[in-house]
Write a structure and sequence with these properties.
Helix content: 25-40%
CATH superfamily of the largest domain: ATP-grasp fold, B domain
Distance between the termini: 48 Å
Oligomer: single chain
Structural class: alpha+beta
CATH class of the largest domain: Alpha Beta
Radius of gyration: 21 Å
CATH architecture of the largest domain: 2-Layer Sandwich
Strand content: 25-35%
Length: 448
């Protein structure tokens, strides 16, 4: 087991990893930018190293500074969290060359699965059903036009190196395609420094279902059930839950087996998520694989009672998984709401500033993952997510009631948040009945 781990991230996920390390008896090193000098993860870690100015590319994305901080502090491993460098194959390769353990899959797997077009081809070879679409990357607009005519509108343009909802456009006609193609490419270039695109058939009103997998270095791969991530705004998840209300035991078994097959096909190691779209008939299609810990991992932890971050660390240290597939039992229901510093009434404009917390939610079955503290100055530089509020109940109704109660207790002054918008979703009759799909927010709240 490692003696010391450097966390190459910030915010609530850095705090989450520090807590997991402490429970395993491992020392931690925090890295921070100038603007994060007073952040909670800096205070909680055993050591902290400043790695640059506020801009992410000069700090949290500055690979040389992070590697130097690791060597300087004597850390043996780096946990990248999610975002930033978590799925960066070049950074993982740098770690390997410097004999630092990257807590995640091998660089080759990151490279393969990070390119959505390549991942699609790998899944076809592995016998995992994929969404109908073009073969490989689109070379130019003319090829995109031909592919769309062959697939049939509506289609979805997606950045090959994409993630987080960036570089995605839904196109309903040939007239819309040219503008969508150029804007998606430009967005992908700015976000990932890679403007290559591919195309899939757009499935109308699907459910977004993802399966959590764990894979060790000894050939064992298991899944921990599914999460339903259908409540999204502009391809960004807002509320997640486990288990899904639409999966029968038979469908869950088939999808779980497909997720394990997908992970084995690429030689996956560590924690990962295989994401599917499920249509109204119950047919499911591989969408992508996230090669990192997910924002929404706590809902799986609550229904399985397995600490996913600790499992990541154990796997990276070479330990064999102590869990068998038959050990996984889903108990109760969990919901997660993402609390963001944003103004829903002003087009979800970010709302940085000083957060004065009047009341934290708590009580039985309530978990809050956050790096907030009273008087914390939320910087305008990074993602607007402040916290993840997670509730667990014996069934979905109990988890939902606990979430309403917990949100009502969560009082923050000094900034705008999306809490009232979350209430509107939770009180929606269709959401209560579980009648949801990925277009739920767009349709129910007229938000495109």
């Amino acid at each position: 087991m490692f003696n010391k781990i450097l966390i190459a991230n910030r915010g609530e996920i850095a705090v989450r990893i520090i807590r997991a390390c402490r429970e395993l008896g491992i020392q931690t090193v925090a890295v921070y930018s100038d603007i994060d000098r007073n952040a909670l993860h800096v205070d909680l870690a055993d050591q902290a190293v400043c790695i640059g100015p506020a801009r992410a590319r000069e700090s949290y994305l500055h690979t040389e500074n992070i590697i130097s901080a690791t060597v300087l502090t004597g850390a043996e491993a780096i946990h990248p969290g999610f975002g930033f460098l978590a799925e960066n194959s070049k950074f993982a390769e740098m770690c390997r060359e410097c004999r630092i353990t990257f807590i995640g899959p091998d660089p080759e797997v990151l490279e393969m699965m990070g390119n959505k077009a390549k991942a699609r081809q790998m899944m076809i070879k592995a016998g995992v059903t994929v969404v109908p679409g073009a073969d490989g990357v689109l070379e130019d607009f003319d090829q995109a036009l031909r592919a769309a005519e062959q697939i049939g509108y509506p289609v979805m343009l997606k950045a090959s190196a994409g993630g987080g909802g960036r570089g995605i456009r839904i196109v309903g006609s040939a007239e819309e395609l040219k503008k969508a193609y150029e804007t998606a490419r430009n967005e992908a270039k700015a976000a990932f420094n890679d403007d290559s695109m591919y195309m899939e058939k757009y499935l109308e009103e699907p459910r977004h279902i993802e399966f959590q997998i764990l894979a060790d270095h000894h050939g064992k791969v298991i899944h921990l059930g599914e999460r339903d991530c259908s409540i999204q705004r502009r391809n960004q998840k807002v509320i997640e839950e486990a288990p899904s209300t639409i999966l029968t035991p038979e469908l869950r078994k088939k999808m779980g087996e497909a997720a394990v097959r997908a992970a084995k096909a690429v030689g996956y190691k560590n924690a990962g998520t295989v994401e599917f779209l499920v249509d109204k008939s119950g047919s499911f299609y591989f969408m992508e694989m996230n090669t990192r810990i997910q924002v929404e991992h706590p809902v799986t932890e609550l229904v399985t009672r397995i600490d996913l971050v600790q499992e990541q660390i154990k796997i990276a240290s070479g330990q064999e998984l102590a869990i068998e597939q038959e050990d996984i039992q889903i108990k109760g229901h969990a919901l997660e709401c993402r609390i963001n510093a944003e103004s829903p009434t002003l087009g979800f404009r970010p709302s940085p500033g000083k957060a004065n917390i009047l009341l934290w939610p708590g009580g039985n079955g309530v978990r809050l993952d956050s790096a907030l503290y009273n008087g914390y100055e939320i910087p305008p530089t990074y993602d607007s997510m402040l916290a993840k509020l997670i509730t667990h109940g014996r069934d979905r109704t109990e988890a939902l009631n606990k979430m309403r109660r917990a949100l009502d207790e969560f009082i923050i002054e000094g900034i705008d948040t999306n809490i009232e918008f979350l209430f509107q979703i939770l009180d929606n009759d269709k959401f209560i009945k579980g009648e949801i799909d990925t277009s739920f927010i767009a349709k129910e709240f007229n938000l495109r």
